[in-house]
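Is this the right way to post structure tokens for a design question? Let me know if I should format differently. Anyway, here goes:
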């Protein structure tokens, strides 16, 4: 649809491996310029894994 910024909420209590699954599922729909925000997810140690999933956090 052409969005350049996407935010996902309701993930604060979701395990990191499930968040990675979600990011991998939506990755084909994002462009290289799409920015991403995950509301309530402050897991610094998981950030590299989130980035590896193909999203721009």
């Amino acid at each position: 649809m052409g969005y350049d910024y996407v935010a996902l909420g309701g993930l604060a209590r979701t395990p990191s491996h499930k968040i990675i699954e979600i990011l991998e599922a939506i990755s084909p729909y994002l462009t290289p310029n799409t920015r991403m925000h995950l509301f309530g997810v402050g897991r610094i140690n998981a950030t590299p894994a989130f980035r590896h999933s193909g999203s721009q956090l």
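Format looks fine. Someone answered above. Worth noting: The first helix runs from residue 16 to 26. The radius of gyration is 11 Å.
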